[in-house]
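pasting for the record
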Amino acid sequence: MALILIADATAQERLRLRGIIETQDHVVVEADSSAYCLEIAEYHHPECVVLNLAMANGQVSDLVRSLQTLEVNILAITDPDQPDSHQQCLESGITHILPLNPPQDKLLTNLAKALNESDLPQQADNTPQAEATDKKVQVLQQLLSIDKLQHLIGLGSNTAASTLTELTGSTMHFQPPTVETMTAYSLQQLLKGRFGNEAICAAQLPFEGSLNGTSQLFFPQTSGASLTELLTGETPDSEEFDILKQEALTEVGNIVLNSVMGAMSNALEQQLTFSVPIYQEATVEALTQSLAQDSNAVIILTQTHFNIKDLQIDGDIILFFRMQLFFDLADSNLT
C-alpha cells in the first residue's frame, strides 16, 4: 500500500483514476492545481504522483523539477497531440508516461513500475471488485451530473425567491446556478477572492441522513444590513438592529437553504434531516476552517447569486458536500 497523489484539473478524471488506483489498496489524495500539488507533495510525501501535465499550464519543467527535488516518483499523463510535453518528460528523466484517459491495465502496470514494485498488479478487469468499482463510478456520474444539479438547485432557488418576494414585497431574482468540484483548499481560496478577509454574514444549515454536510448562505455585510432593514423596518443605528439582523438572516437562510436542499432531497429520493440554522459573522477562513483541514476532501460546490435590484441587495448561496459522501450514496444506489 502506498500514498498516491492524483494531480489533474478535471474532477471527473480524478474520480475515475481514484477508483482504479484504490483497487490496489493504495491511499489516494488529490490536487487540482500545480500549487496544491506541490503543497501536498511537500507535506505528505506521496510515493508517487499521477500527474496530468496539462495542469502545469506550460510550466512543465518547473513543476517536474520541484517534484523531483522532493524525491517523488512521477507517472506522467500527456496529450499525444502535444509532443513537446512528452519530450520534456524524457529530458527530465521521467520514464513512465501515459496518454490522456489511460485505461486501467496500463495505468496500474505503469504505477507499479513507478513504485518499483517487484510484482505487477493482477489485472482486475473482470473481477467482482473491478466491476463494482466501475458501477459505482457510473452511478456517481449520474448523481453528479452538472445539468441535473443545476436544474435541482434552480428549482429550489425559484421556490425560495417566491417566498422571499412575498415577505419583502420586492421581487427577488436568482441567477442560474453553477456547479463544479474542487478541493477544500481551492474552495477556501475562491471564497477569499470573492469576500476578502472581512467578516461576512453567514447562515449555515447542517443536514444529515443519506447525505451529511452543511449548506451555507453568505452575505456581504452591506447586503445583510440592507435585507435586515427591509424585513424588519429597523435602521442600522437602532440599538436592537444587531439582534434583529441575526434573527432575520437566520430566517432567510432557513427559507433559501431548506428550499434548495429540499428539492435535491426529493429528486434524489434521499431522506435528509435539517438542523436548526446557525448564524455567524466571521471571515471565510474561519467559516471553512474545519473543511480546509481535510486535505483529502473533494468538494461538490454549487453557487447561485441573487439580488433585489431596486434596493441594491445581493448575496450568494454556497452549498458544498464532501465527495466521499457521494461514494456512500453510490453504494446505496447499487443495493
